[in-house]
C-alpha cells in the first residue's frame, strides 16, 4: 500500500496518464451516447444548447486524449483504443431519463476529470523524481487540461441554471 | 483515496483476517508503515469516532468507520478490476496499491461505469489474497 499522494516513477506516471485517457474516452463516448438519447419530446431550444454542449465536450475530450497520448508516447507506453472503451460504455449504458439527467451526467464527467487532473498534478508536484518526459511540459499540459475541465463544469452548471 | 480511508480499509481487512480487533503489527505490515505511525493514526481515527481501540487487543471499526471502510474497499476493488480487465495489467494488485492514494472515489465511480462488478462487492474481496475472489483474472493477471 502506498500512503500519501506521490508519483514516483515513469511507470506509475504512464499508468495514471493511461487512466486519464480512459476517463476522456468515457466522457467522449457518454457524450456521444447522450446525443443519441435526447428524447424527441424535448426538442426545444434548450436541447439545441445541450446538443452543442455535448458536441463540444466530445471534441474537447478527444483533444485532451491526444495531448495525453503524446505524453504517454514519450514514456514508451500504450493506450487503450477509443473503440474498446466505447464498446464498454455501450455495454453498460443506460440513457438518463431526461435532459436534466443528461446534464447531471455531463457535470459529473467534467467534475470527475477536474478532480483527477487536480490530484495528479498534486502527486507530480509532491514528487522529486525525474521522468522521461519533460516535467515542465508535463505539468503545463495538465494545468491546461485541468483549466478546461473547470470551464467545462462551469458551462454545464450555467446551462443547468438556465433550464430551471 | 485519502490516508484515513486507507487506514480504515486496512483495519477492516485486518479484522477479517484476524477475526477480531486489528493488531498494530498486522496494520503496520498491511500499510507498510511503522507501528508508531499506526498508533498515531489510530488515535486520530478514535478521536473522530471511526475506530475503537482496546489496549493489548487492537482496533475495531465503529459503525461509521465500517461504512467508510466498506466504501474505501469498494473503490479499491474498482481500481483492481479496472487495471486487470480494462488495462490488462498483470501486476494489478501491486499497481492498485501504488495508485490508490492518487485515485479519488469520484474517479473510481466513473471508471465503474465501464466495468462489471458483482453486486455483493466488496464482500467478495479476499483479504488474504488481496483481490476479489470473483475477479476473472487470477493473481498472476491471467484470465481464469
Automatic annotation (TrEMBL), chain A:
Residues 43-78 form a coiled coil. This is Tumor suppressor TSBF1-like protein. InterPro entries: Ferritin-like_SF. It comes from the Archaea. Keywords: Coiled coil.
TrEMBL record, chain B:
Transmembrane segments: none annotated. Gene3D superfamilies: Winged helix-like DNA-binding domain superfamily/Winged helix DNA-binding domain (1.10.10.10). SUPFAM superfamilies: Winged helix' DNA-binding domain. GO terms for molecular function: DNA binding; DNA-binding transcription factor activity; protein dimerization activity; transition metal ion binding. PROSITE patterns: HTH_DTXR. Residues 1-62 form the HTH dtxR-type domain. This is DtxR family iron (Metal) dependent repressor. It comes from Natronolimnohabitans innermongolicus JCM 12255.
Amino acid at each position: 500500500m502506498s500512503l500519501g499522494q506521490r508519483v514516483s516513477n515513469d511507470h506509475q506516471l504512464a499508468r495514471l496518464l493511461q487512466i486519464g485517457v480512459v476517463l476522456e474516452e468515457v466522457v467522449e463516448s457518454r457524450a456521444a451516447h447522450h446525443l443519441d438519447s435526447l428524447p424527441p419530446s424535448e426538442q426545444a431550444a434548450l436541447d439545441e444548447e445541450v446538443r452543442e454542449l455535448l458536441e463540444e465536450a466530445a471534441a474537447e475530450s478527444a483533444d485532451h486524449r491526444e495531448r495525453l497520448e503524446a505524453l504517454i508516447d514519450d514514456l514508451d507506453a500504450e493506450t487503450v483504443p477509443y473503440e474498446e472503451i466505447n464498446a464498454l460504455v455501450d455495454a453498460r449504458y443506460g440513457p438518463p431519463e431526461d435532459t436534466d439527467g443528461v446534464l447531471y451526467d455531463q457535470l459529473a464527467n467534467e467534475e470527475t476529470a477536474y478532480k483527477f487532473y487536480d490530484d495528479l498534478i498534486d502527486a507530480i508536484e509532491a514528487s522529486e523524481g525525474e521522468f522521461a518526459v519533460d516535467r515542465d511540459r508535463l505539468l503545463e499540459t495538465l494545468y491546461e487540461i485541468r483549466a478546461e475541465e473547470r470551464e467545462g463544469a462551469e458551462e454545464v452548471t450555467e446551462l443547468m441554471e438556465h433550464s430551471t | 483515496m485519502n490516508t484515513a480511508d486507507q487506514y480504515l480499509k486496512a483495519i477492516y481487512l485486518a479484522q477479517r483476517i484476524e477475526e477480531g480487533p486489528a493488531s498494530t503489527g498486522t496494520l503496520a505490515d498491511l500499510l507498510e508503515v511503522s507501528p508508531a505511525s499506526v498508533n498515531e493514526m489510530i488515535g486520530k481515527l478514535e478521536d473522530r469516532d471511526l475506530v475503537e481501540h482496546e489496549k493489548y487487543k487492537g482496533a475495531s471499526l465503529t459503525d461509521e468507520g465500517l461504512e467508510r471502510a466498506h466504501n474505501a474497499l469498494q473503490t479499491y476493488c474498482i481500481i483492481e478490476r479496472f487495471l486487470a480487465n480494462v488495462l490488462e495489467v498483470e501486476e494489478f494488485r501491486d499497481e492498485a496499491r501504488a495508485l490508490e492514494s492518487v485515485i479519488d472515489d469520484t474517479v473510481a465511480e466513473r471508471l465503474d461505469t465501464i466495468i462489471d462488478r458483482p453486486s455483493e462487492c466488496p464482500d467478495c474481496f479476499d483479504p488474504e489474497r488481496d483481490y476479489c475472489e470473483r475477479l476473472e483474472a487470477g493473481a498472476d493477471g491471467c484470465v481464469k
